[in-house]
Amino acid sequence: MAKSRTTHSVLLGPGDMVTKWPGIGETRALELENLGVKTFEDLLGLWPHRHEDRSVITPLWMVQDGESVTVQGIIQSAHYDPVKKILRVQIQEGHASLTAIFFHASWLKRQFEPGYKAIFSGKAERRGHQLSMAHPDFQVMTEDREPLLGLVPIYPLSGSLKQVFMQRLMRDIVPRFAPQLSDPLPRPIQEQEGLISRPEAILHQHFPPNALALEASRKRLVFDEFLRIALAVLLMHQVDPHVPGMVQKPDGPLVQRFLASLPFSLTEGQKKAWDEIQHDLRQPTPMARLLQGDVGSGKTVIAILTMLAAVDAGHQAAFMAPTELLAEQQWLVLQNFLRPLGLSVALLTGKDRHADTYREALKTGSILLVVGTQALIGDRVEFKRLGVVVVDEQHRFGVKQRARLSLKGEYPDMLVMTATPIPRTLALTVYGDLQVSEVRGLPPGRKPVETIHLSHKDRRIAYQRVMAAVKRGEQAYVVCPLVGGDDEETQAKAAVDLAEGMKKIPGWRIGLLHGKMHSKDKTRIMEQFRQGDIDVLVATTIVEVGVDVPNATMMVIEEADRFGLAQLHQLRGRVGRGPKPATCFLIADPKTDQARERLEAMVRFHEGLKLAEEDLRLRGPGEILGMRQHGLTGFQLAHPLKDLDLLQRARGVAREIVRSDPQLVQPEHQALRTWVLDAMDDGIPSQVLH
Ligand SMILES: Nc1ncnc2c1ncn2[C@@H]1O[C@H](COP(=O)(O)OP(=O)(O)OP(=O)(O)O)[C@@H](O)[C@H]1O
Q1: Does 271 sit in the ligand 1 pocket, CB within 6 Å?
Q2: Of 25, 292, 313, 525, which one's alpha carbon is 20 to 30 angstroms from that of 248?
Q3: Closest CA to 251 of 285, 286, 275, 267
Q4: How far is the CA of 503 from the centre of ligand 1 (A)?
Q5: Looking at the chain, which residues constitute the CATH 2.40.50.140 domain(s)?
Q6: Residue 452 CA, ligand 1 centroid: distance in Å
Q7: Ligand 1 and 292: CB distance under 6 A
Q8: Which parts of the sequence belong to the Helicase C-terminal domain (predicted)?
Q9: Which fold has domain 253-439?
């Protein structure tokens, strides 16, 4: 360690600001802040995203072309070419030499003083006797530095922060501050669970002596992540007498009239879910329920019932959709359902010119039912008394945003709807003490959507079938491919091209729908399609969720091999939503085995759950259907599916602790208490808050 550092920083503790460390000026402090680091303790928790194995130093003469290696040698020269803006550093080991090349890095030159030993890690290139390495990670062994070898941590970077700087900084900081941290987990529990201490785990997460130690460290830290969240959830859900509860009226007059107005009776699955929700709505404690049900299972009706229960109790209800188009869609659907009851629903989107008027009306309480996007949780929206919030397709939302909405309406009852099944333990962890209801089964008379895979050369068959359906007065979707990535711009262009081509087909009324259109036009097109004034709707994946036109019986998905299973299932769910049989054509010449198997799975399976399992099998647990969308933030090292075992153990331990000491006031739980409260400040409760 450098002398100056010892004298200047002798009194520092983990809670001190990193700016007190020599070498961390304003710029670096800001860059570190971008990584969420302000104090030394934060820095200790900045985990490397991987480790590079530099335990083997390959002799220069043995290095092969294209090999990723760590090598060493004595610096012979460092030349900067100002014209080509290239820095060349030559090292030598025995008779062999290597040139490291750095582009646009004149300032690096002074680091490479000839005579010192340098260690380079990177991909080598060999041309005959010439060996080179472009932009390697490097270490120069001046007197006060030990080389960093073995499993070397690779850190996330920000701005102009360099890997070498971070590694050196961590090497000074971690061994110094980690032992100063206390271990929040009482020792008996630690031993019972066979875990190493937290300070040791932190040390080894950065600088593991070997792979086994790294694994033991990970196990402890993952356990901690789960334990912290599980404790926060349990503590938050202990009944707080000061929480103003809200009771809704699930058997009020509007609910009754709505049920009577439906042209169908509820399915068994719907009845069961509604029973569970009713029970929650009657309690003064805020409801936090996840409503799971396959595409087309009839979740919307349940959402409406829940919202009406709030209105019957004199409260407001909000419906939050992931996109503006979906908010508009849902708004139309809700209006259709509620018009017969003489109820109006407001639509509040970001761009609406009536937005100000609506906001005022929400504040005074003259709007009872509102549909919107994130705009609903904007700082400018206030509710008089928000009783129920329904969140559709929650995976598109950040959990924090939902928490913000919750916080606005005192403690509204919250119903989160999803068509993507997620394992129960996972739901419990991610959404806290969320109860789960399932709408099992589909409304009567629904046949599975016949699914046919056609290669490009047989594409004609699909369009002939579409033509026949249009002749029968039915409607169709044509979903255009994801071209070169899935951005809306390129997709929109593909949709326009496809629609242009199809407009040439006589007798077809073609509509076009993509994300780049004005929301006014999108609504108009959807309304025309709903009314049956458009026969074939050419669309991007914008129609993936929520769109409900029961007369649409045909879907053609172009280049279907480019979509994931979750997406294909959602898309297919747009047809077969009425009593008429429906067909979905998947047009594709799959290039990989996996893509072919995905298409086969679509042809064979119709249930979301089955497809989720199939997806899991094809892709492995890391990519399970919808996992990424589920916003599994808040976990840094933990993988809630792979670490299911640790998750269950942590939940068990959390329950044990809270049972024996509900407020965590016993001396052995003091550290634990502070640690959990800190987590709540860090935003963990926003994950678990309804
Ligand atoms: N009990 C029922 N009997 C007959 N039809 C029903 C019943 N419940 C709902 N439906 C109709 O089934 C269609 C699908 O319902 P809904 O839109 O509520 O499904 P969803 O679960 O929200 O689907 P998605 O997740 O795909 O949006 C709608 O046209 C709806 O009117």
Answers
A1: no
A2: 292
A3: 275
A4: 31
A5: 56-148
A6: 24
A7: no
A8: 472-617
A9: Rossmann fold (3.40.50)
- Full-model pTM: 0.62
Q: How far apart are CA 438 and CA 423, in angstroms?
A: 12
CA distance 686 to 690: 8
**Per CATH, which fold does 450-605 belong to?**
Rossmann fold (3.40.50)
Q: Which pair of tokens denotes residue 244?
A: 């103003």
Looking at ligand 1, which residue's alpha carbon is closest to its atom 3? 443
- Domain ranges in the chain with CATH number 3.40.50.300: 253-439, 450-605
- Orientation angle between helical segments 163-177 and 198-206, nearest 10 degrees: 160
Which tokens is 132 given?
A: 């080179």
pLDDT value of position 134: 92
For the record, the structure tokens of 672 come out as 């634990």
pLDDT in tens, 517-536: 887 788 889 889 999 999 99
- C-alpha to C-alpha distance for 13 and 179, rounded to whole angstroms: 11
Tokens 């102009």 map to which residue? 160
* ipTM (interface predicted TM): 0.97
* Dist. CA 362 → ligand 1 center (Å): 28
Contact between 71 and 98 under an 8 Å Cβ cutoff? The reply is yes
User: Are the beta carbons of 429 and 640 closer than 8 angstroms?
Assistant: yes
CATH number of 56-148: 2.40.50.140
Asked if 269 and 440 touch (Cβ cutoff 8 Å), the reply is yes
Q: Is the CB of 270 under 6 A from ligand 1?
A: yes
Chain-centroid distance, C-alpha 5: 41
Structure tokens at 519: 């929301």
Q: Among 689, 681, 632, 684, which Cα is nearest to 405's?
A: 689
Distance in angstroms (rounded) separating the CA atoms of residues 154 and 309 = 53
* pLDDT tens digit sequence for 339-396: 889 999 999 876 667 778 888 899 999 999 999 987 777 667 888 888 998 988 655 4
CB of 332 within 6 A of ligand 1: the answer is no
Q: How high is the pLDDT of residue 676?
A: 77
Question: How far apart are alpha carbons 306 and 274 in whole angstroms?
Answer: 8
